[in-house]
Amino acid sequence: MDLVDDLVKTAKQNQAVLIKNKLGKSWGFKFPCAQSIGFHVITHGHCWLKVANHVSPIELFTGDMVLLARGVDHELMSDIDACSVSVRDRDLQCLSEQTHAVDDGSDDEGNSTLWVTGVYHFKHKLLHPLLNDMPDFYKISAGELTAKQPLLIALELLDAEVTIQEGPANPTVVQSLMTMLFYYLMKQLNDENPKSLGHILSRQWARAYSDKFLSQVFDKIHQNISYNWTVESMASQSGLSRSAFATRFKQMTGDTPIRYLAQARVQKSIEYLKLKDHDIEAVSQLVGYSSAFAFSKAFKRICGVSPNQYRKALQ
After folding, report:
1. pLDDT: is 301 or 122 the higher one?
2. Under a CB-based contact definition with an 8 Å cutoff, are residues 37 and 192 in contact?
3. What is the pTM of this model?
4. Alpha helices (runs of H) in the chain, residue ranges in sequence order
5. Is 58 helix (H, G, I), strand (E, B) or coil?
């Protein structure tokens, strides 16, 4: 199973893209990220990143990308003493399914900065384990990538779309490229040596998803989420005894197989709730629950609201 692909499918449903173009004067933007995960790509120029609870600001240059976890407030600014304007979560939510470009009117190409931000909103708690395993921020530069590496190719395509070509960037193309960049950034993070990331990232779930006994269980669960899974049937997929499987699962993930199954089912159900093609009873069956009551109970326990309330909040 491609863990990152599964993650991106979850995040993409809540995507917004913002382009800040030709910011040549003193400028700054605050990103309160209580309900969002985001990443910034510097396609031209340079700026500074200030991350809440981190002492030293980070200078970003052309080709730099930085991924920030949900709840990590931060600022992008032209210089470390610049005043910042807040970009609120509710403002970014209004950008959903859109691409917005902002030009400050500067004609000083040599000193201007252009950056693109991808934002992924989560009104409720994060359901995907890897999202909860993220460090506060993860930075990578184009210079660290090798030729023909997918992340570098996606970056070059984005640069061509928003910087090189004449006229405004195509929103559909930019959104697709930002999804690609998000995928490859998360994949790069998932494959990173944990020692290089420091103690802030346990990578507990990343290790579990690649475990030779557990990985095939995750595969089967996500391929057939509606199956009547039990600990015994999961154990049979792993090749371990029931007790050995339950013990290994707990040691590797810190969770139980049944709790993970419920979380995976609720995560999948959100896709159906957003489509509005099925009533709650039908959704419950699609994700493996015997009744709408059992599904609603699990959904509320995990998300804090009922499926109906969640669906109404999307309208």
Report:
1. 301
2. no
3. 0.69
4. 3-12, 89-93, 129-132, 150-159, 171-191, 194-197, 204-210, 215-223, 231-238, 242-253, 257-275, 280-286, 292-303, 307-313
5. strand
